[in-house]
Amino acid sequence: MTATAAPATVDTARLPGLLTLARVRAGVELRTFLRERDAVVFILAYPVIMLVIFATVFGSDPVGITDEAGRAVGFAQYFLPGMVATGVMLSSFQSLAIAIAVERDDGTLKRLRATPAPAAAYFLGKIAQILTVTVVQVAALLAVATLVYDVPLPDDPGRWWTFAWVLLLGAATGTVCGVAFSSLPRSGRSATAVVTPVVLVLQFISGVFFMLDQLPAWLRQVAEVFPLKWMAQGMRSVFLPDAALALEPDGSWQHGATAVVLVVWLVVGLAVGLRTFRWRRRDDC
Q: Which residue range or ranges hold the ABC transmembrane type-2 domain (predicted)?
């Protein structure tokens, strides 16, 4: 009688730590992102391109308000906050929703799940990639706005604090919602067609391409349900003078409401993502 061979096991004690694995995974995610030219153009460069288009079309035309120094606020300065907000949504929500759907469809997630690496390393790698792209994107937007269109940056530390928490909370919300939404497309091939129209519609109704006071009241009420409107409004409170409150339908920056809406979407996205996230395709048993 021969002894039955014991199944091979993985010595998890020899695996690198979670942070090391996450750092390696982050490098993989960044390289993969940069190799996708369409992702670089439509996610990383898109807000910068749109800012240049708007600033070129409208030129230095004022929007009807002046800052504390008496300088007229032009369209480049007015649209900068919306471009920052939409950049955060593109880098987090759209990027993740499409990328995860594609990786699920081509079997990448299934293979990753079969390795001894913890699932947390995969998600931490995605988060690191999102934060890196977001920082580069925002830096490019601010550089173009200030150097090319002479948009003044705030000198009040309180405004930069608002910028930081709106940016981080918006990115976190977009990330968890992107993970949750990635389960909706039926295949990786259809992911772009499912995700992109959602982001485009939100941009049009959330004060990114138009001033909110120019939109119908019912459309503004629809926009208030979703995070992008509040991210754009929070960013306007950073880069626009208080005189711009005259252009806000509610006459207030509503920082409290911004935080509440983003946190609610963060919690909802996390709950839905935990229930619906799949490592395999629907037809893969």
A: 38-280
